[in-house]
Amino acid sequence: MEKRFLTIAEQVELLAARGLRCDAQTPRILLREGYYAVVNGYKRPFLDQGATRAAKEDRYQEGTSFSDVYALFRFDRSLRALTFRHLMLVEATLRSLISYAFCERHPRPEAYLDESSYTCRRAYLRGEDAFEGDLRWMIDTLAHHARARERDPRGDRRDVRVAHFQDNHDTVPLWVLVDELTFGNLKYLFALLRREEQLAICDNLAELSSYRIEGHAVMVRPGEKRAAPSQRPLTPRRVARDLEAIVDVRNVCAHGERLYDGRFGLEDEADFAAFVSMMSHFLEPGDLAHLQGGIESLVTEYSQASPVIARELERTGIAGI
Q1: In whole numbers, what is the pLDDT of the chain averaged over residues?
Q2: Which residues contact 272 (CB under 8 A, 6 or more apart)?
């Protein structure tokens, strides 16, 4: 049976009929935010499950108001904004470390377009079956950005740094081109690097993040001593798995999807609390403390707004971050 369009007045009537207390602000909020985004996205903790099953349509717990549901919606929106700001720091760090590790070991112009510059099939972190397709796609993506002038000569539409090299030099180096890549692109590029480069990135992440190795140099160059495997808090495989979840979270934040109770990464293995733990591998201590403190403040504020929200945040583990 198809769902028919409901006016704002009809939406309010429907919510009231299902036991949700509405007020004068409800129509304005529904018009501004959308019924589906607020109600369908955040109603679950407020439903009376037994009554819902019996009625075969939503029934809300006694005393629940629309403002309660909207408060959980606003909590999640604030959580996405806070998280996204810190993800941009992680993305910037990855751009720098990936391009540094690659360019130092592959100084030849446009070495990033050469298949021999990357790992081999059996060592690919995302699996042997995916290697050929991922490698070809990555090189094609880099070539597209490096030669964008041939497709779009309008200089004002190109990244200013890439445009400068396209207009004044024969090639665009990876340390410039990397700014054109998405966070998802960086995830694949890291997995495609040779193990030596991946290890250098891991060690530098550990040095820059709260996982510091005492006495370790900030930038690890070819031939320099690295931490022994038993001392290394980050491995290429661990970073690659973390990036699967982190990119998922980034996309949730960018597209306004529900974050607080999501599952992320390979096989949906990580919840939001696990994601924050992963961020400790990528953020400097002060930035990590800012993220954790911001989450704690949001939890405190919105838990006071509704006991149902307080229980929900306890259930998901966010209240304990």
Answers
A1: 90
A2: 249, 259, 260, 261, 262, 264, 316, 317, 318, 321
